[in-house]
């Protein structure tokens, strides 16, 4: 009875906050209770504001309310509830470290101060007045927190007059170094064809130019992190940015070779690391006939065997 009562009250709050029908469900109600750390027996005045991730939210639902969600429901919680909470200004993303990478296991959420101050009055005579004040500021809050998130994005110029903004984090910082430091050194006058992003997966993609080179990609999820065309040599440089995931190993080499099998330019495979310490963790995995670049020593390139240095193996010219 206490569990059902608390869930119904959470639903009333979500409805009062103006959430659409798609978020007026048990999952969203329980998520609200989780980010307030409010068990069934506690009154709304006892809400707190913990930093909490998606998995701890799901654990809270199970441990405090007996609602067990499958592990593959994580994305549903993230995309169908927390995303809307952020957009409405009732929650904040990584308030303790706004530049935390989007794929970090430490990613977390917290109830916004304005929403907290409103919710703790639920069931009291102050509720109507605090709710009215919150609703008046709601649009402004959403814009405010969106601007805060935008300020943490990493700007990157990929072509003349074209600037993209990458999701904050070490991975994106390395991608920026690849485009701004590696490219001019080893492919001067090169053209950026593709840049991935951990946030929306694609930061920039010139489909038309890649198609002109013979490559049509349906699933960009298989793309390397950066693709640069070097017109002087007629090479396509396929570059992986490695901060946590693996380098161009034999498996990845095969995947990229297949994906770019129709490429007219020659293919050059490069693994980029932020530093030599990071590189040392993967030395045993790096494929032969590839190159390695370390951002902390940008003027040096490491060649993994093969008959030539920095050049394609599917073409016998222009190296």
Helix-strand makeup class? alpha+beta
Q: How many alpha or pi helices? A: 10
- Report the end-to-end length measured between terminal Cα atoms: 75 Å
Which CATH architecture of the largest domain would you pick? Answer: 3-Layer(aba) Sandwich
CATH topology of the largest domain, anyone?
Trna Endonuclease, Chain: A, domain 1
The H/E string reads HHHHEEHHEEHEEHEEHEHEE
Give the fraction of residues assigned to helices.
25-40%
Task: List its salient traits.
319 residues, alpha+beta, Arc Repressor Mutant, subunit A, Trna Endonuclease, Chain: A, domain 1, seven-stranded mixed β-sheet, 10 helices, 38% helix
């Amino acid at each position: 009875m206490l569990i059902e009562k608390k869930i119904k009250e959470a639903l009333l709050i979500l409805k009062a906050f103006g959430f659409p029908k798609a978020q007026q469900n048990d999952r969203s109600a329980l998520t609200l209770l989780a980010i307030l750390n409010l068990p069934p027996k506690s009154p709304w005045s006892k809400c707190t504001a913990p930093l909490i991730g998606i998995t701890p939210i799901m654990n809270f639902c199970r441990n405090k309310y007996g609602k067990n969600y499958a592990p593959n429901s994580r994305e549903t919680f993230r995309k169908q509830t927390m995303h809307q909470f952020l957009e409405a200004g009732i929650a904040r993303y990584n308030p303790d470290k706004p530049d935390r990478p989007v794929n970090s296991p430490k990613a977390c959420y917290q109830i916004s101060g304005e929403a907290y101050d409103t919710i703790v009055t639920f069931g009291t005579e102050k509720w109507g007045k605090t709710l009215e004040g919150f609703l008046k500021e709601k649009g402004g809050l959403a814009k405010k927190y969106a601007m805060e998130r935008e300020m943490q994005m990493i700007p990157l110029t990929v072509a003349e007059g074209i600037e993209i903004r990458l999701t904050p984090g070490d991975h994106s910082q390395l991608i920026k170094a690849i485009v701004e430091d590696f490219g001019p050194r080893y492919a001067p006058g090169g053209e950026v064809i593709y840049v991935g992003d951990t946030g929306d997966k694609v930061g920039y993609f010139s489909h038309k130019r890649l198609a002109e080179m013979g490559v049509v990609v349906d699933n960009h999820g298989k793309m390397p992190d950066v693709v640069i065309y070097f017109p002087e040599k007629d090479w396509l440089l396929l570059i992986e940015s490695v901060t946590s995931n693996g380098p161009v190993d034999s498996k990845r080499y095969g995947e990229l070779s297949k994906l770019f099998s129709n490429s007219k330019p020659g293919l050059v495979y490069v693994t980029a690391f932020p530093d030599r310490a990071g590189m040392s963790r993967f030395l045993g995995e790096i494929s032969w006939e590839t190159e390695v670049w370390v951002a902390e020593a940008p003027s040096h390139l490491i060649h993994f065997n093969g008959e030539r240095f920095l050049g394609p193996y599917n073409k016998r010219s222009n190296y």
